[in-house]
Amino acid sequence: MPDKTMSFAGENLRINPQRLWDSLMDMAQIGPGVAGGNNRQTLTDDDAKGRALFQKWCEEAGMSMAVDQMGNMFMRREGSDPEALPVYVGSHLDTQPTGGKYDGVLGVLAGLELVRSMNDLGITTKHPIVVTNWTNEEGTRFAPAMLASGVFAGMHTQDWAYDREDADGKKFGDELNRIGWRGEETVGDRKMHAFFELHIEQGPILEAEEKDIGVVTHGQGLRWIEMRVTGKDAHTGSTPMPMRKNAGLAMARILEKVDEIALAHAPDAVGAAGHIDVYPNSRNVIPGKCVFTIDFRSPDLAVLTEMESQAKAAAQKICDDMGLTIEMETVGGFDPVTFDEECVGMIRAAAERLGYSHRNIVSGAGHDACWINRVAPTAMVMCPCVDGLSHNEAEEITMEWARAGADVLFHAVVEKAGIAE
């Protein structure tokens, strides 16, 4: 790293924490939830409003915008060498239906804040810097999660992504067009010097150990297995027990096996079902159909594969024994991730340089960085969140936690981008 860059590495190279916090609170006014959080699901009218506000802020900071055919937003700050590959930084602006104000949004707005702070300090980097908002990271409306970054990294085709449907049968491609955020740029054509993502931990480790910074070395692998169990609707009062074809009971037995399988691969593996639909969902009707998605995660690919295999075999046997039918499809997932050693080292060195306490951590959640790691050197930095709570309107962080994460991000990005001569 040139000495000139390191001369910026002290007190001067800090973001403006109040400005970052104000931006977070202003963005939270778009798509407010019912309990203090946010419901700004992807490709809704509120998503479009959030994108427009982000665009306005970035253009006021001197950045230019490009949008690709998946709606990914790329806000560019020029470097001294226009031929140099850009350093990318960002996350996502979409939220869960009952999401918090920080999940994803912190990483996008911290990217904006570091550009604003570079403007304040008169810093020019050799490599351009591009602040990115990835479309549909959450996957709550259109499965799978990290859909647009997955297309960017070549994990999904664009046509397949466009055909994803929400619960109302609306297609991703149609909704992207409807809100006016389908760009013309070919997805995945961009080349990156590196990608950095700041995110709240979404777990309790950093807060419990009183660490300011999580240096993310790996990401857990994930498998989403959708199961459709079909039995027969029948009256709960007049159908004899031996003659029932109870899809709800089969689902309960399958979910018990899921818990057993995850516990057998403890401590790093986890498993549960979060999305469950029961039909007809009436008090006096035995369920004739259940649709649910099993979520398995592990940092070990062999373990992840084994858990998926065991769950499918157990589910098939349960349904066969009960005279029910079952359909199973792996509808989402990714293999465990090892982040770029050099970029991870820059994050660790930044935390040490700034005097922030830190520890290595494995991300238990999926992030856009997990896909981008396949096409560019990538690393993540995490900050604590209160009680480890996320995907909940009560999700909370402190301004100081946000500042620490953004400061570390600032240092790592500037180091990778290089100070202009």
Topology:
Blueprint: H1 3-6, H2 17-27, H3 45-60, E1 64-67, E2 73-77, E3 87-91, H4 105-121, E4 129-133, H5 147-152, H6 158-162, H7 172-178, E5 194-200, H8 205-208, E6 213-219, E7 221-230, E8 234-235, H9 247-264, E9 270-279, E10 285-286, E11 289-298, H10 301-322, E12 325-334, E13 337-338, H11 341-354, E14 358-363, H12 368-372, E15 378-383, H13 399-417
Helix pairs in contact: 2-4, 2-13, 4-13, 9-10, 11-13
Helix content: 25-40%
Q: From the alpha carbons, calculate the radius of gyration and give it in angstroms.
A: 23 Å
Shape: elongated
Number of strands: 15
Cα-to-Cα separation, first versus last residue: 13 Å
Instruction: Give the low-pLDDT segments.
Output: 1-7
Summarize the structure.
It contains 13 helices and 15 strands. The protein has 421 residues and is α/β, with parallel strands linked by helices. α2 crosses α13, α4 packs across α13 and α11 (341-354) packs across α13 (399-417).
Describe the structure.
This protein is α/β, with parallel strands linked by helices. The protein is built from 13 helices and 15 strands. It has helices spanning 3-6, 17-27, 45-60, 105-121, 147-152, 158-162, 172-178, 205-208, 247-264, 301-322, 341-354, 368-372, 399-417; strands at residues 64-67, 73-77, 87-91, 129-133, 194-200, 213-219, 221-230, 234-235, 270-279, 285-286, 289-298, 325-334, 337-338, 358-363, 378-383. The strands form three sheets. Strands 1, 2, 3, 4, 5, 6, 13, 14 and 15 form a nine-stranded mixed sheet that branches. Strands 9-11-7-12 form a four-stranded antiparallel sheet, with helices on one face. Helix 9 packs antiparallel against helix 10. The longest helix has 22 residues, at 301-322. The chain is elongated and about 80 Å long. The two termini are 13 Å apart. The model is unreliable at 1-7 (pLDDT under 50).
